[in-house]
């Protein structure tokens, strides 16, 4: 079943058309990976889904509802969370306070909190520590935890492995696999090794356009296509 669909989406930033005619269908369940070189338009796509940029023309449909013109807070209320590249956490607040702020009513659902402790044990360990004092990987875990502290149907995650040590990247992959059992993940990544271990469906954005969309298995098998769409030398 289709969870999210983008149709002929054009997003302008200032006078520049950054996205051109983006159409994409994200099915419910699992991890959908959005790949592409630096500056291709991946973050702009996520921000356009969240109502942080307004596509025009074009539409964003979520569970069959047109959300193109909704405000970001209303889009979030429908069950979509965004984990931005800068993580969006509050450095001066503790792990607990960061998570409380991400709840709808200011209190935790015990089962969800226990699940977060299981996924990211460091967060329980450093529960009373201020977020600025966490390692890069722990900050990223906190950022993802904030997105799933309430039930969500879809989380948009922007380059979560950037700058992280390989062991942390493996732990993150494990956590994403578990999260994607219950919540669809739309993942923007430059780390192809990480992305290919997780994605079932994928698309590549190049110069603001969808250059390819299909199954991850087919893309992984096609080295020439990978070189053409992802290599830095092209
Ligand atoms: N706020 C902005 N003002 C002006 N131009 C912007 C802005 N945000 C993005 N752009 C431009 O839009 C294009 C796409 O940027 P975007 O951040 O979506 O790319 P990306 O694929 O996420 O790249 P990266 O992997 O480097 O984050 C780039 O040319 C970028 O310079």
Automatic annotation (TrEMBL):
CDD domains in UniProt: ABC_TM1139_LivF_branched
The record's annotation in InterPro entries points to: AAA+_ATPase, ABC_transporter-like_ATP-bd, ABC_transporter-like_CS, BCAA_Transport_ATP-bd_LivF, P-loop_NTPase
Q: Record keywords: Mitochondrion included?
A: no
Which GO BP terms apply? L-amino acid transport
List residues of the ABC transporter domain: 4-232
What single Pfam family name could you report for this chain, choosing any that match?
ABC_tran
Q: Which UniProt keywords apply?
A: Amino-acid transport, ATP-binding, Nucleotide-binding, Transport
The residues the entry assigns to the signal sequence are: none
Q: Which molecular-function annotation in GO is an example for this chain? A: branched-chain amino acid transmembrane transporter activity
Q: Which family does it belong to?
A: Belongs to the ABC transporter superfamily.
**Protein's recorded name:** ABC transporter ATP-binding protein
């Amino acid at each position: 079943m289709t969870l999210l669909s983008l149709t002929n989406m054009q997003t302008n930033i200032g006078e520049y058309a950054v996205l051109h005619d983006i159409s994409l269908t994200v099915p419910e369940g699992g991890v959908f990976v959005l790949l592409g070189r630096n500056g291709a338009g991946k973050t702009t796509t996520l921000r356009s889904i969240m109502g942080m940029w307004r596509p025009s023309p074009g539409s964003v449909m979520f569970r069959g509802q047109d959300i193109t013109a909704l405000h970001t807070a209303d889009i979030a209320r429908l069950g979509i969370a965004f984990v931005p590249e800068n993580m969006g956490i509050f450095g001066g607040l503790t792990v607990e306070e960061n998570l409380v702020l991400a709840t709808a009513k200011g209190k935790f659902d015990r089962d969800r909190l226990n699940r977060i402790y299981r996924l990211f044990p460091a967060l329980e360990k450093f529960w009373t520590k201020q977020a600025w004092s966490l390692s890069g990987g722990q900050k990223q875990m906190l950022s993802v935890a904030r997105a799933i502290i309430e039930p969500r149907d879809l989380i948009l995650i922007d380059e979560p492995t950037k700058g992280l040590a390989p062991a942390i990247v493996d732990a993150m992959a494990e956590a994403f696999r578990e999260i994607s059992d219950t919540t669809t993940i739309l993942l923007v990544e430059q780390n192809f090794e990480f992305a290919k271990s997780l994605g079932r469906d994928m698309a590549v954005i190049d110069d603001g356009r969808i250059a390819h969309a299909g199954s991850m298995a087919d893309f992984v098998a096609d080295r020439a296509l990978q070189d053409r769409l992802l290599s830095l030398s092209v």
